[in-house]
Amino acid sequence: MVQPWHWPALAAYLGAGGVTRRLGYRGGAAWPLRIGRARFRGPLGYPAGLKFLLEIYGRGVYDSFRTEGAELLFDVGANVGGLAIQRCLAQPKLRVVALEPRASTCATLRANIATNALAARIHVIEAAADERAGRIPLGLPVGSTMGVVRTPDTIDPTGPVVDVRALTLDELLEDHGSPDAVKIDVEGHEAAVLRGAARTLREAKTVVLEAHTPDRRDTCARLLEQAGLRVRAIHPLLFAERA
């Protein structure tokens, strides 16, 4: 359920940040944003993952992603940790393996995990997810905390490109065990992630995935259904549960 006090908290944080940035003050990056029990750090008034926190805590976009009773969550495209921290604070037995390929965002993710005293339960891996292990080109859009895997049909071709480590979700399963729940938000690369997760999808009980175009949604829905999951769409998310 979306909590009404999240909106003013986020609005005040962004508004204060806009004023301080105009005045040339940069120290706001150390100020924590408190949302319920969670605390997050990032440059005030600068995107720095606040868009994603607004979606999670303000709009409640993942409220239909049921993780009660889950012991292990794969958070693929964890960004600054909004979902992982929210669920760990609500579910004391939950562990998370969080993948985040952008180095600067991964540093913020680790800082937020430490701020919420969750280092023992959220394991961070600085890597992208793909259909095969190796290296992959990652675009770094300016003014964003996202990393966007560069392909011929990438959704955001702006910004510099770096070479990053890539893993498959089935590799994560071998190293960390079978996840009960999987969240995938990889900015257009979701079908490739699913193709590297055949065993993971067969064993997961629930999956949520963001797909940015109708063609991508259709492809991902088909891959999820082939794994025996029942899929429903709430734009732009696909929610899948074990049938």
Descriptive overview:
With 243 residues, the protein is α/β, with parallel strands linked by helices. The chain folds into 2 domains: 1-58, no CATH class; 61-242, Vaccinia Virus protein VP39 (Rossmann fold). Helix content is 34%, strand content 25%. The protein has a 7-stranded mixed beta sheet, sandwiched between helices. It has a 4-stranded mixed beta sheet with strand order 6-9-7-8. The chain has a two-stranded antiparallel sheet with strand order 1-2.
Quick overview:
With 243 residues, the chain is an alpha/beta fold. The protein has eight helices and 13 strands.
Please outline the helices and strands:
Blueprint: H1 6-22, E1 32-35, E2 38-41, H2 50-59, E3 72-76, H3 82-90, E4 95-99, H4 103-115, E5 122-125, E6 128-129, E7 134-139, E8 148-149, E9 161-167, H5 169-176, E10 181-184, H6 190-195, H7 198-203, E11 206-210, H8 214-226, E12 229-234, E13 237-242
Parallel strand pairs: 3-4, 3-10, 4-5, 6-9, 10-11
Antiparallel strand pairs: 1-2, 7-8, 7-9, 11-13, 12-13
Helix pairs in contact: 1-2
Which descriptors would you attach to this protein?
243 residues, alpha/beta, Rossmann fold, 2 domains, 4-stranded mixed beta sheet, 8 helices
Structural class: alpha/beta
Whole-number count of domains: 2
> What is the CATH superfamily of the largest domain?
Vaccinia Virus protein VP39
| DSSP summary, beta strand count | 13
CATH topology (fold) name of the largest domain = Rossmann fold
Q: What do the pLDDT scores average to?
A: 87
Largest sheet: 7 strands, mixed
Secondary-structure element order, as H and E?
A: HEEHEHEHEEEEEHEHHEHEE
Shape type: globular
- How far apart the termini lie comes to 25 Å
Q: Unreliable runs, pLDDT <50, ≥5 residues?
A: 23-28
Q: From the alpha carbons, calculate the radius of gyration and give it in angstroms.
A: 17 Å
Question: What oligomeric assembly is this protein in?
Answer: single chain
Strand order of the largest sheet: 5-4-3-10-11-13-12
> How many DSSP H or I helices?
8
- Helical content band: 25-40%
